[in-house]
């Protein structure tokens, strides 16, 4: 009787599921192939939940799985055998395991020709995995032990838009034009909390969000952003940047909207580009703000109307410096769209 009731409950759910995108035969095969260590919700049959199970190895994955959750386990090896039938995977979460680079069997990821999201944060990888599928759009590898990016590892990944490598052991010679070759459509790259001492080379011109917090960068080359015409969000908090390491017009890039330079060693406010909307300069060594030095246009040339010539700055953070209020009048006249100043 209990078995009959279970079957009736499943059949109640089958109707809506089949009506969406899964034939009855596939549905039944998926439910029946669910590993005993995992959970396969009847109303979400393409998802397999194997997280938080203290698994040391990956069970065989059902053939019609799209979403696979394996985070928070003790997995050390990605075996080809476990994924042999899982050719339809779109989303794979392997965060917080014990996977090493040697434990990623050759070609195991490349066979996942539909994979879009791959999460391998908080593992023991020493290099970026090779043979990644061309379908990949998001690759998260933060908080591993990655010190090398194999040459050519990104070639063919034309759809990759997000690359997260924060919290690794990457040095300047690991992040180069050669190692990043192939990232032709990258939008966001996170290289925060690595061991960089200079601005990374070879970033694709499509880069919109660049995160470099928590490195040891001391200077920015004068023409650095000429190769990054779309960069809009730039974070350089917690580095070793002094005012002498920032050329006067280095940030004069029309695309930059949000610039973060908190917790550095600046003694002056850099020239603020007209299009910038948010500027974080807290916890530096700045003693004063001189409007004529930071305003991108002549204060005398700004009339009372709000037009395209008026600088767009809306938020300015200056706390943690040696500045004493009030803010000079010429600064207020220049940045008349300011809505918040923290001092």
TrEMBL record:
The UniProt record lists the keyword Glycoprotein: yes
Highest taxon, organism lineage: Eukaryota
Locations listed in the record: Secreted, Extracellular space, Extracellular matrix
Signal peptide span: 1-19
LRRNT domain: residues covered: 33-67
Recorded GO CC terms: extracellular space
Keywords: Disulfide bond, Extracellular matrix, Glycoprotein, Leucine-rich repeat, Repeat, Secreted, Signal
Keyword flag Transmembrane: no
Assigned protein family: Belongs to the small leucine-rich proteoglycan (SLRP) family. SLRP class II subfamily.
Name under which the protein is recorded: Keratocan
Species annotation: Seriola lalandi dorsalis
């Amino acid at each position: 009787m209990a078995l009959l009731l279970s079957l009736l409950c499943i059949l109640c759910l089958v109707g809506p599921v089949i009506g969406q995108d899964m034939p009855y035969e596939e549905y039944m095969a998926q439910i029946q192939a669910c590993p005993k260590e995992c959970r396969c919700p009847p109303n979400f049959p393409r998802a397999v939940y194997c997280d938080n199970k203290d698994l040391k190895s990956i069970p065989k994955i059902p053939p019609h799985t799209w979403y696979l959750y394996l985070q928070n386990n003790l997995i050390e090896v990605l075996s080809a055998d476990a994924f042999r039938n899982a050719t339809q995977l779109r989303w794979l979460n392997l965060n917080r395991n014990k996977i090493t680079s040697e434990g990623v069997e050759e070609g195991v990821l490349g066979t996942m020709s539909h994979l879009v999201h791959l999460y391998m944060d908080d593992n023991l990888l020493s290099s970026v995995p090779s043979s990644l599928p061309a379908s990949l759009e998001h690759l998260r590898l933060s908080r591993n032990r990655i010190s090398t990016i194999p040459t050519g590892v990104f070639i063919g990944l034309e759809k990759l838009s997000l690359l997260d490598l924060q919290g690794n052991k990457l040095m300047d010679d690991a992040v180069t034009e050669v190692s990043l070759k192939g990232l032709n459509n990258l939008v966001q790259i996170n290289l925060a909390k690595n061991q960089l001492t200079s601005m990374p080379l070879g970033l694709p011109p499509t880069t919109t969000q660049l995160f470099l917090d928590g490195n040891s960068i001391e200077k920015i080359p004068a023409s650095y952003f000429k190769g990054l015409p779309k960069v809009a969000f730039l974070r350089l908090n917690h580095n070793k940047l002094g005012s002498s390491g920032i050329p006067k017009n280095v940030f004069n890039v029309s695309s930059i909207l949000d610039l973060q330079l908190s917790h550095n060693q600046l003694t002056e406010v850099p020239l603020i580009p007209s299009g910038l909307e948010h500027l974080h300069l807290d916890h530096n060594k700045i003693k004063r703000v001189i409007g004529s030095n930071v305003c991108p246009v002549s204060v005398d040339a700004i009339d009372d109307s709000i037009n395209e010539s008026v600088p767009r700055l809306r938020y300015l953070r200056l706390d943690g410096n040696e500045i004493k209020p009030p803010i000079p009048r010429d600064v207020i006249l220049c940045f008349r769209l300011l809505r918040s100043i923290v001092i």
